[in-house]
Design brief:
Number of strands: 23
CATH superfamily of the largest domain: Aldehyde Dehydrogenase, Chain A, domain 1
Shape: globular
Bound molecules: nicotinamide-adenine-dinucleotide
CATH class of the largest domain: Alpha Beta
Number of domains: 2
CATH architecture of the largest domain: 3-Layer(aba) Sandwich
Number of helices: 16
Length: about 550
């Protein structure tokens, strides 16, 4: 029986709650140790001795792990291991594979929850709430719903017709060969979902985690092994993405790329795959969810306080490091005059600091590279005649990579921070004349190459409909009177088009379809015994 799952309930972590006590104990424990993280190939831990330290972004002198990076030898072995393991993994059958991933979900919902949430809080500097909705709830949902979807289409994709004397069927085969899963730092759930979604339908994977999330990702690899994942189905390979890609593409059994990360990295990978094509056994599937320049467009007739809350939460939660974070807003003058002072006051109330202090709304950005990039945007905006930094704008990297929540107001809708992805706590606002709503929809559609998420704030259905049509291709996830972040598995399948990715909608069944390569089977029960046809007979 295929019973539809429900979304995992979000725990609140209020003072005095049981979960609050447990997470604090787990945070203390993880802060008191330094673990060694190996490569895991064919189920074996390999300590290479080539070590990178994993630091805590909000306290970057603190080391939480020593990571053993893969060399070419481990990379080659990981690809071979994935190929060798595939036949037995296919033979296990969908039902048994689903049982393993449903066990993963149960472990994460139960005894592993605090461990993975605490690791995400420390490793990627998330508040407890941001960790809970990502590394616990979203990943539990990915695992449970993907099994549900896979069972569904294995049944639904059978041929409609089998005439008398014939039995038609479809075998839902996985891709032949291994999938390379290259994962981002910012969502623990996405990191584990990229190798495991193809695995549910019978693929095997080489998993290259981000150098900024080795710690939480390694714990998830351990969880999957505890749930019974057979050796070699997912091979965990910390190391250089460029080198792993080169090794994977030199193996003819490379069957697909499951990527989430920046647009420039993905575009480079696509080109490399194109060059490798003559050496590959199959045409690989390429799935990539990439950057965004996500917007909020307000109409003069909108809920002002609702807009203010959406701007604040949408732009600054998790320090703006969500691919869906609002980073440009188009606001009519009358609305801006009404909300701007209140918005600035609310932003000045935001507390920023260590993820273990639960009164903080924000923590640090992920690393120095990111800190330098974001502060560079802020500094250039300070010098740009068309821009004014109206709130925030300061940063301090001495203890952790802290950047204040920042708003820039510009009179140029094409200025750098209105069109480029910054991936930090920086919102740029373009204030428009109240009567230019339709023109502003065109500017929103045309000015940035991205098309990931976006929101319209309006109360009149006619205005909502205008935005809905004008912005049809401007966002793969479109919100009406809400912030553009916080997509939920099975509710708003996620992904964007244009420069934002292949839009294969993680959290819905469409993504899983990219990892299958069905075989159509006809069985003839009444085997023809004559070779000629009636039309050939003489009259
Ligand atoms: P990134 O592109 O720097 O890294 C992503 C992964 O690619 C990492 O594992 C990294 O090691 C690897 N990588 C980097 N260079 C490589 C190369 N030359 N060859 C092979 N692999 C390479 O991105 P990030 O900083 O980890 O994540 C942030 C980006 O991800 C943002 O652009 C964000 O918008 C995007 N993102 C998109 C979605 C989505 O669903 N659209 C979700 C999360 C994040």
């Amino acid at each position: 029986m295929n019973v539809q799952p429900v979304n995992e309930e979000i725990l609140g972590y209020a003072p005095g709650s049981e979960e609050r006590v447990k997470i604090q104990d787990e945070l203390d424990k993880q802060m008191s140790e330094i673990i060694d993280i190996p490569c895991i190939i064919n189920g074996k831990e390999i300590f290479t001795g080539n070590i990178a330290e994993q630091l805590i972004p909000h306290n970057h002198k603190h080391v939480i792990a020593r990571v053993h990076l893969a060399s070419k030898k481990e990379m080659e072995e990981a690809c071979r291991s994935a190929v060798r393991s595939q036949e037995a993994w296919i033979d296990l059958g969908l039902e048994e594979r689903c049982k393993i991933f449903e066990k993963c979900a149960d472990l994460l919902a139960g005894e592993w929850r605090m461990k993975i949430n605490a690791a995400t809080m420390l490793n990627q500097s998330k508040t407890v709430f941001q960790a809970e909705i990502d590394s616990a709830c979203e990943l539990i949902d990915f695992w449970r719903f993907n099994c549900y979807y896979a069972r569904g289409f294995h049944k639904d994709f059978q041929p409609l017709v089998s005439p008398k004397g014939v039995e038609n069927s479809t075998e839902i085969r996985p891709l032949e060969g291994f999938v390379l899963s290259i994962t981002p730092f910012n969502f623990t759930s996405i990191a584990a979902n990229l190798p495991s979604a193809p695995a549910i339908v019978g693929c095997t994977s080489v998993w290259k985690p981000s150098r900024n999330s080795y710690y939480s990702n390694y714990l998830l690899m351990q969880l999957m092994m505890e749930a019974g994942l057979p050796d070699g189905v997912i091979n965990f390979l910390p190391g250089s993405g460029a080198e792993i890609t080169k090794v994977a593409l030199s193996n003819p059994d490379f069957a697909g790329l499951h990527f989430t990360g920046s647009t420039s990295t993905f575009q480079g990978l696509w080109q490399e795959i194109g060059n490798a094509l003559p050496k590959l056994r199959s045409y690989p599937r390429i799935v990539g969810e990439t950057g965004g320049k996500d917007f909020i467009v307000a109409h003069e007739n909108c809920d002002h306080r609702g807009l203010l809350v959406a701007l604040l939460r949408g732009s600054f939660e998790y320090q703006g490091q969500k691919c869906s974070a609002s980073s440009r807003a188009y606001i009519p003058k009358s609305v801006w005059d009404n909300i701007s002072d209140e918005l600035f006051n609310e932003i000045r109330k935001i507390k920023m600091g260590d993820a273990r202090d639960f009164t903080n709304f924000m923590t640090a950005v992920i690393d120095k590279r990111s800190f330098d990039k974001i502060s560079g945007y802020i500094d250039r905006a300070k010098k740009n005649q068309s821009c004014e930094v109206v709130v925030g704008g300061n940063y301090d990297g001495s203890v952790g990579w802290y950047i204040e929540p920042t708003i820039i107001v510009t009179n140029d809708p094409d200025s750098e921070t209105m069109v480029e992805e910054i991936f930090g706590p920086v919102l740029t606002v373009y204030v428009y004349d109240n009567e230019s709503f339709e023109e502003i929809l065109q500017i929103c559609d045309k000015s940035s190459p991205y098309a990931l998420t976006g929101s319209i704030f309006a109360n009149d259905e006619i205005d909502i409909e205008k935005a809905f049509k004008a912005l049809r291709f401007t966002a793969g996830n479109f919100y009406i009177n809400d912030k553009p972040t916080g997509a939920v598995v099975a509710q708003q399948p996620f992904g964007g088009a244009r420069a934002s990715g292949t839009n294969d909608k993680a959290g819905g069944p469409l993504n899983l379809l990219r990892w299958i390569s069905p075989r159509s089977i006809k069985r003839t029960l009444e085997v023809p015994q004559e070779w000629d046809y009636p039309f050939m007979r003489s009259e």
